[in-house]
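Students often ask what a holo structure prediction actually looks like on paper. The answer is less mysterious than it sounds. You provide the chain, you provide the ligand, and the output is a string of discrete structure tokens encoding the 3D arrangement of the protein together with zinc ion.
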Amino acid sequence: MDLDSLYQEIILDHYKNPHGKGLRGTADDAGTAEVHHVNPTCGDEVTLRVHLRPTDAGPVVDDVSYDALGCSISQASASVLYDLVVGKPVDDALAVHQEFLTLMQGKGAVEPDEEVLEDGIAFAGVAKFPARVKCALLSWMAWKDATAQVVAAGGENR
Ligand code: ZN
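The corresponding structure tokens follow.
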């Protein structure tokens, strides 16, 4: 199996069996923020809720729950996002976010680091297609937005 077929298989698998899908908790819980992002070029939409939990070492991503509509790439990337950030300290999750962003903005020239991105490496193929990059980044941008809102509100310390 060539690399592109393997990547497509990983994306299809997350699309068919999304991890962490569905909204959990309530949007106005302490430490929670909810955002709605759309990708008008493709018609993808995501409603995403982030809950951060305070620890002595700083806030941890307690849960990321979401409802996603749209193409297989946008929905699969939400599932991969869930796998990669839930349970991590916010700073570590932001570092993974940056790594994914670098991959997606690399026009296919960035070699993905499987240690960091796990199934996220499958989007290396998508990075070659500028029109689809926004699909892959939709939920990731929504996650960063919601996380920044919780942190700005000091909500992770409540
Ligand atoms: Zn799309």
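The two ends are 50 Å apart (CA to CA).
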